[in-house]
Amino acid sequence: MHFKAWLILATLLFGVNGAQAAPCAQVKAQPDAWITARVNALVQAARNAFETDNALPVYEKVLDGIVGTIRECKLSEDHDFVRQYRNFLEFVEAAGLERRSDHELGFLVSDKQYFTETRQFVGIPEFLLEPAFLKNVSRYETLGRAKSYLRQLNSSRAADERLIFFSYKSRHLGTPDNDNSYRRLLVVVPGNAEKGLPDKWVQFGVTDPGMRARVRNVSVVSAVAAANGTYNAYFKDFYRTYRRNGSIAVEGRWELGEGDDNCAICHKSGILPIFPVRGTVSAAEQQALLTVNERFRSYGSARFGGYLDERKLGPGLSSASLEDRRQRFGPAFEKTPAAKAMVCSSCHNAERLGALNWPMDKVLIKSYVTGGRMPFGQSLSSRDRQQIYSSLIEEYFATDNHKPGVLKSWLLGTTP
């Protein structure tokens, strides 16, 4: 059904957006009509893009068209318009940042400025760039040698400075350089909050057994704890270059001219907990897995160093009211196991782990919900979990005029 809607939307928008979507005089004379039409188009396009990557170009065209009209008609300079449609304008501004060639990260500043200013937080520690270690960590067959090196380092480090590490297979996403690569070695390098030194979560993509083409990615996500129960998260992807002489160079993906991704699409909570494929963490490393997830929970609420104002993207999944659910799904729905478990926003909100709002990654969300990891601590059947997922998506993206979803209602300013 959504694929068909995407095709219809594509046909309409590629025709409409080719010219000016609405003359400025008409927009200002009938702002409610223009806003409603644009919100409907934007939310439907976002839903389609969430459901299938093939629909992403249409979403981008819708967003670009709205941004173009706002700029051409100087709507952001119209105080009455801004006061009435603040949510819509701020959302479009925030969501549109990644459409700029120098803002692929989706942050308020350019990618160049971000990486310059956060260099002290996201650099890979020198001891993880040691040539023999880089060689051994690159292949599954030699991963044991890489771990032996890390254990040797720990033998001379104080207890609170010891590296926490384990290898696993991700159940969610491939690496940025290889969508089909799921093996990882995670090394958590403890920092020092009193000195402002971050914890660094350094993750190496590991080539699958027997594969010749090697995975290049190394990701760093750092956590700088604050005294008020929050922490700032910073991100950077690096790529390994395997040279003919056997040496391995590690440079920033952006510095290599290979682009970057919008980190916050997946990292709404900053650092993510690790939920490996069952059986891929050895018995000897199970405690390390538990330790890193406990460390994640200890950080508190994620902030992004002032480079992202996530509140401008609105509320997230499950933030619909009980009355909205009664009207949308019927009064009997609230008594079902699925309804009782639709509580994502109790943790995933702006004050805690970050709202699960658009733009967001379908693979991650669906895997967590239907795969049994979220809602945390809930014992539910596969059928109930599928119902939770489909209901969350419906109530978030719905565009019905009489029963608008979370995103549409917020963009129109009809909910807080």
Q: Please give the radius of gyration in angstroms.
A: 23 Å
Element-level helix/strand string: HHHHHHHHHHEEEEEEHEHHHHH
Strand content is 5-15%
What general form does the structure show? globular
Q: pLDDT below 50 for ≥5 consecutive residues: which ranges?
A: 14-21
First-residue to last-residue Cα separation: 30 Å
Mean pLDDT: 88
Structural class: alpha+beta
* Helix count from the secondary structure assignment: 16
Oligomer: single chain
Q: How many domain modules?
A: 3
Number of strands: 7
User: What's the main sheet like?
Assistant: 7 strands, mixed
The helicity comes to: 25-40%
List the helices and strands and how they pair.
Layout: H1 2-16, H2 24-29, H3 31-51, H4 56-72, H5 79-84, H6 86-95, H7 111-117, H8 119-122, H9 131-137, H10 143-154, E1 164-169, E2 183-189, E3 199-205, E4 217-225, E5 230-242, E6 248-252, H11 286-298, E7 301-303, H12 322-329, H13 337-341, H14 362-370, H15 382-397, H16 406-411
Parallel strand pairs: 5-7
Antiparallel strand pairs: 1-2, 2-3, 3-4, 4-5, 5-6
